[in-house]
């Protein structure tokens, strides 16, 4: 599979697009954040 054909989502915190990763293979439907940092900062106000 080429990288251009991977599914993408938009991060709920930083609002940047991110692509599917192998480690998310089983939980892709539940992934909401692009990184651990965004997940930790999910309750912070976006300035």
Estimate the global geometry from the Cα principal axes.
globular
Rg, alpha carbons: 12 Å
Number of extended strands: 2
Unreliable segments (pLDDT under 50, ≥5 consecutive)? none
Number of domain units: 1
Report the end-to-end length measured between terminal Cα atoms: 37 Å
State the helix count. Answer: 1
Helix content percent band: 10-25%
Helix-strand topology string: EEH
Which strands sit side by side, in order, in the main sheet?
1-2
- Biggest sheet statistics: 2 strands, antiparallel
Portion in beta strands: 5-15%
- Judged by helices, strands and strand pairing, the structural class is alpha+beta
The chain-level mean pLDDT equals 89
Describe this structure in words.
With 47 residues, the protein is an alpha+beta fold. It has one domain (8-42). It is 11% helix and 13% strand. The protein contains one helix and two strands, in the order ββα. Strands 1-2 form a two-stranded antiparallel sheet. The radius of gyration is 12 Å and the shape is globular. The model has no long low-confidence stretch (mean pLDDT 89).
Which SSEs are present, and which pair or pack?
Elements: E1 8-10, E2 17-19, H1 36-40
Antiparallel strand pairs: 1-2
InterPro entries: UCP037205
Pfam families: DUF2256 (PF10013)
Protein name: DUF2256 domain-containing protein
Identify the notable features of this structure and list them briefly:
DUF2256 domain-containing protein, 47 residues, alpha+beta, UCP037205, two-stranded antiparallel sheet
